[in-house]
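Re: [ENG-882] Designed sequences occasionally contain unexpected residues at chain ends

Forwarding the minimal case from QA. Structure tokens:
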């Protein structure tokens, strides 16, 4: 497949849930928190800005957009360290829904500011623009559809479509019949579904209401939606490589995402 025929290219930069971890027992799946890069022609679209965004090497001429699901720390903690912020006048567009009554910039200004951090986002050399979140919009020729997921204080579902191929990001999503039916419809016929599978079914019983899901529910939704490729994401921080391998052997209908994984559509 040559570059001109490529529709969307997904790269996993970090897929750990809740908090970054490190150590050789986490080396294969990776310890950095949520960040996925989708390349579409000249556009680089980053799904969340967890510590995985520190691993990003943006192309010098790429147009950069960040689509945030929500403002929880594990999805935002890499943003102050995103290398593109140090490029003078480089445009960076950030989209996010209002959370807890705060517009995206108001929320980020609470974290990236003194005393937590020595400067604000507008003090970086890059030109950052914050956008409210429409239900649908375009980034270049990539169509973006958004919907509300199922998470304490909310998390946005994104569907990216280009040249007939689609990737759906559904992290920090807790299953319930209404939310699953809505996600099945939202993800219908998509090529790749990134699905929050932080818990095993047994763990889920202890963590009901924390806003995460299981591989079993991901498989059910992917089947209902006719998804071609299912990626389990947002791995529990204590889940080492051996434990993830064991889950992978049990749930072969999906792939437990690992940092560095790439899918080209
Ligand atoms: Zn999270
Ligand atoms: Zn969250």
């Amino acid at each position: 497949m040559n570059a001109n025929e490529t529709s969307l290219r997904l790269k996993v930069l970090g897929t750990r849930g809740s908090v970054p971890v490190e150590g050789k027992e986490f080396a294969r799946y990776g310890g950095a928190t949520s960040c996925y890069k989708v390349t579409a022609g000249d556009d680089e679209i980053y799904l969340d800005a967890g510590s995985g965004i520190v691993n990003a090497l943006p192309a010098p001429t790429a147009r950069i957009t960040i689509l945030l699901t929500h403002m929880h720390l594990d999805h935002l903690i890499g943003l102050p360290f995103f290398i593109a912020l140090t490029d003078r006048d480089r445009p960076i567009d950030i989209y996010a829904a209002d959370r807890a009554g705060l517009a995206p910039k108001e929320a980020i200004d609470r974290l990236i500011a003194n005393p937590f951090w020595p400067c604000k986002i507008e003090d970086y050399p890059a030109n950052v623009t914050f956008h409210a979140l429409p239900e649908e919009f375009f980034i270049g020729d990539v169509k973006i559809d958004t919907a509300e997921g199922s998470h304490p204080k909310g998390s946005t579902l994104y569907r990216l479509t280009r040249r007939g191929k689609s990737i759906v990001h559904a992290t920090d999503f807790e299953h319930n019949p209404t939310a699953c039916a809505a996600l099945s419809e939202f993800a219908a016929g998509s090529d790749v579904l990134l699905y929050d599978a932080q818990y095993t079914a047994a763990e889920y019983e202890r963590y009901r209401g924390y806003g995460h899901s299981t591989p079993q529910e991901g498989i059910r939704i992917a089947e209902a939606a006719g998804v071609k490729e299912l990626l389990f994401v947002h791995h529990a921080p204590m889940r080492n490589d051996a434990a993830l391998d064991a889950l992978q052997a049990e749930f072969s209908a999906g792939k437990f995402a690992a940092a560095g994984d790439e899918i080209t559509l």
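QA comment: On inspection the terminal residues look reasonable. DSSP finds five helices and 14 strands in the chain. Proposing we downgrade this to a documentation issue.
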